[in-house]
Each structure stands twice: as C-alpha cells, then as structure tokens.
Amino acid sequence: MSTAKRGKVRVENGRYRLDGQFHFPYPNDPIRNEHGELMGVTNPRDLTHVHMYGGEAPFFEGLSQGKLLGTRCDNSDCEANGSIFIPFRIHCPDCLVKNNIVDMTDTARKGATVHTFMITERTGAFNTLPKPIRFVNVEFESVPTILMGYLSVGEPEIGMKVVPIFNTSKPSYTILDLSWVPEGTDESDIPKGFTFQ
Amino acid sequence: MIKFSEKQLKIPQMQRPVFLVTGGMSKFGRAMPEKRTEELVIDSFVEAAEFIGKTPAELKEYIHSCYYGHFADHFGDQLLGEAVIHDRLGLDPLGNVGIKTGGATGGSTMWEAFKAVASGYSDCVLAMGWERMDEVPTDEGNNYIASAADKDWETPLGHIYTGYYAVMAQKYWQVFGKEEESFRRTMAEIAVKNRGYARMNPHAQGPMDITVEDVLNSPVVAYPLRALDCCLMSVGASCAILCDEKTAYELTDEPLLVYVSAGSHTLRVADRRDMDIPLLPNESPDQYKDLGERFPGGDRYPGFTGFLAARMAAYYGYRMAGIVDPTEDLDLVELHDAFTISDIQSYEDIGIRPYGEGRTYVESGDCYHTNPHTGEPGKLPSNLCGGLIGCMHAVGATGIMQTVEVGQHIWGRWAEMHEDQSKWDRFGRTKPEDWTNLQVEGAKRGLAISHAGVGSHVTATVLVHPEHQLERNES
C-alpha cells in the first residue's frame, strides 16, 4: 500500500486539521483447518493514530536540535526542590507543581555513565532499530533518575562513560532521535544523520 | 514518593472476613483456535462449580457482583470484552467491572473482588480472568506487550518488553549475582524445577523434562536470560469465588480465609528514586547497613535490583494476615516467575530471604516440593503448578490461577484436580508415567504473588485455613 496519500495532521486554533487518508480498508480472509472447516477470519487493518506530546513536546523538539532537556522542581516548599528529572517530567511527582525546563546537554556530555545495559537480538513488530539492540540505562551527575536509551557504537559495560548523539538531520521526533556512544567516539563513526550537537 | 506517611502505611482493615470458596481454570495453551474466549471462561467456571458440588446455575444464584481481569484489549481485539463475557456467563443484570494492571491483572482482580466482600457491598463475588494471546504473530504480540511500557520513552526502543525488563536482570546479575557461574546455574535450576512440576499439571502449557545444561544451552534472549529462563505466552481463563463467612459456609464446609494487598511503583524503571528499604516483620533496621559493602552497588534501593511494589504488597499483606516470617508461617507460595532472575528478586522483596541472599532459597532446596539435598519436604515449596515458566501466563488469569492452585493444596485436593486421567484426556495431553503427587501435606497457609511490568503493580494474596489463623500485626 502506497503511503503517498497517508494522512497528515496539523493543529490550528486548538483544533486538529486532517489532510489525506487515515485508514486503508482490506478484505477479510477465511481461516480454515486441514479439513477445510471454517475456523475464523483475518481482520487486517492499516490506520494512523494521532498522538500529542503536550507538555513533553519541548523535549522531543529539543532532541532534533541537539539538546537534551530535563526538568527541575523549583518549588521551595517541596522536599524534591532542586531535583532534576530525566526522563523529563512536566510536573514534580511530589508537589505536582509544574517543573521548569533545564538544558542538561552539557551535563550529559561531561558525566554520563552506563548504570546497566542489555543486548538483545529479539524485537517486536515495527522495530526500526538495527539489531542487536544495545539498551543502556544512563545516569547523570546530580540527577536522581536513570534514563533508558540505546548505544550506537561499541559494546556496553556498566560504568562506561558515554555521550549523547542526536538525529538532527532527519529527526523522527521520537525518543529514537537520542542515542549514546562511548566517550571519545569519532564523529565519523556515529550513525548517518546523527550529530554530537 | 520516596517517603511514606503513617496514613499511607496504615495496615488495611476489612469490615468483615473474606473467604475463598472455590475456583477453577481452563486448559492453558499457546494457541486455542478451536475455542472462543467465552468457552474458556465457561470451562473455568464449570470447574469451580463442580469443585463444591454445585451446578453452574446453582453457583450463579449466589453471585452479587463480578470482577473481570483482562490485560490487553489489543490481544482480544474487543473493547469492553468484559461485557461480552458477563453476558455469555448469563450474569446480567449484576454489576461488573473490568480490571487491567498488566501482568498483575489476575491479582488485582482478586484485590477488587476481596474489597467488595470485605466492605459489605456483596456477599458473594466472581473474580474471573482471561487472556488470549494467540490471534497475532509472536512479534506483533511482543509489540502489544511493549505498549504496556511508556509509549514515548520506552516502547519505540525495539518494541520488546523483555529488553526493558532485562536491564534490571543484568544489574541484579552483576550486583547480587556477581556474574558467578554458580549463580547462573541457580537461575537455570528454577527453570528446570518449574517446567518439571508443570509435567504433573494437565492444565500446563509448557511441561519439560530438562536439565540445567539444557537451559544454559538454550538461545539467548537478552543475556543472561535465555529462552528457557522466560515465561510463556498463553491462552486460557481462571476464576475464584469469594464470599462473606455466612455465604461461604452455605456453599462449602471448607472455605479459606483470604487477604489481598497491593503495591505499586513507577511504570518507567527510569523514574525510580532512591529511598530507605521498607521493612517486613522479619527484618530489622540495622540488617541492611552493610549491604553495599557485601554487594557493591546493592545499597541503592530499590535501584534496578528490587521491586518496591512487591515489597509494599508484602508489607501490607503480611501484617493483615499476621505473617511474621514467610518461610516459617507459610506452607507454599506461587510466585510470578516471569523470568528466573525476577523470581530470585521476588524472594527478597517478599522476605523469604534478605536482600542479596535470594539465591539461597533455591540452593538450600527450600523451594522444592521435596528437598533434593535431604529427601525431606521442602520448607516452602514454590510454583508447584509450574508457574509462569511451566504452566502459563494468560495474563488476566495468572494471579487467579496461582490462588486456586494454592487453595487446592490447603484443601488437600491437589491430587484430585491434577491426577484424573479423564482431565488429561479431555485436554488432549499425555499424563507422564512418572506422574507424582505434589500435594503439600498439611498445608494450612499459602501465598500468591502477581506482578506487572517492571514492577508497576504487585499484589499479594494470602490464603489461610480458618483453624490456623494468625493474629493481625499492626507493628
């Protein structure tokens, strides 16, 4: 099925504006057993879901611009005051006051380490990452949480120093636009389309 | 939260005792093209009715409200599937509700059913759970399961839940397992044990007579986890009937006291913040002071090595049921062995062993029906049905199936429900020539743990024979 007509969405005045086709119908096929008896039918479908990032949109926009954004609770009445959250949290999980956005790109470049990792050949349907996937969970200085991502160069080890790279040339505007490589990796070795900043 | 108030730590107080009267389950399999979900649900309900000598119609007359566990609308391709099942069971116009908490759906269904009786809203309730995971190819099934991770921050990363889970396994393996070959063999021993016990269970989908070497030679899924370390993907249903005391004794002479508690933690393991370890009744404040010295990296709690939700479910549940030391006070457990390594992690979270020492529960032989080192009964046998690795993980049904299995031991009727040749024949399965009765002799108390995601929801269901009730513990 060609995607030429696949639907696009924009938002104008707080309303969705849809253009193109959002679902493509296919006929059912019968499912029969070895005796030719009807057991069921296939229910094929092809549809596009429209998903909004809301208050997290700056994070995903930031990745496309080579920035790693986190958020910080600045509520002086909150025990979590000063806590920086990556993954980005729109609201503080303790006081629920809206957090402020902080640029953590330099922090990540200077002091990110692999807390744990996993290498797997298995993926679910619709995976777009090259296999095997090297999951890395990365911790940063002064950040209490540990971000999940994937390593694009080398083999992961616990305690390994890593730096972020960003898909800035053809961003997908998803978490896949952020990846990690060992500290000291040459720019010529990182995946096509990715940059250090 | 990383600190808990007294109000949050209050031990749940029921308005009246709650009893498990009966339960049942269908056959479990990887695929069941010959049956609709409602047929499996009815199979389990009929078994529950027959277990107490009732017809389904007679049992239905007692039911006042219904609680339905079904994890994934995606898999069923049917929104509001609970209404379909409720109608097919002929239970309209009774009130009913669907419950979804990922892998803990079955346990959470028990939790809701328990509270409905404890509160006085209903005198008799149905807790029914099911899943059918066979109507999409396995890789699409993995895609669906990965949708239970954070869709923006995790799911696009391979669409493979095992990967999100396995990073914790890797951390535990390195911190507490110290990457020792002996630890890896202990993990494999769990898979051998559970698949071996599944051989005695006609309902079980994954019985295997294997060795540690077979597990160690099976394909790597996500190192150190191999294919035989992982749970099954299943189709099937299970149900339980919970009642107040008066109704329970109308239905049976042998109802069991039931207590259900629940805990939670962040959906994204990435969001975990460090905190003090909430202590169980058999632990002391000083116990973990040197944990980081004994296991470098192990002092970061819950970190990537513990499941706070399981700890909290046990925190509430043990005190509700008066359990101080689970190894001493319980006679058997059914644990959520999604992976062999998470099974070991659970031993610590629920206090069978202290943090860092989970492996000794297996290595001592305590977790076996018959301790392989002594030939004596295991101190606290686990997963005698085969668990998620050997029996099934039809997600919405799992926590209920575990509870029913524990109940059958306390009722002393495990052999009756697993030995009958006609059941093996009906399920199209061959009963092994060396079939062994795994009844835990004299069982009077047991526990089932139901667990979701990377620890987002966990429930603890404790069953107690009424003549062996313990004193509630508020401390």
Automatic annotation (TrEMBL), chain B:
InterPro entries associated with the record: Thiolase-like, Thiolase_C_2, Thiolase_N
Pfam families documented for this protein: Thiolase_C_1, Thiolase_N
Regions crossing the membrane: none
Molecular function terms, GO-annotated: acyltransferase activity, transferring groups other than amino-acyl groups
Occurrences of domain Thiolase C-terminal (ranges): 304-414
Start and end residues of each Thiolase N-terminal domain: 18-205
Protein's recorded name: Uncharacterized protein
Natural source organism: marine metagenome
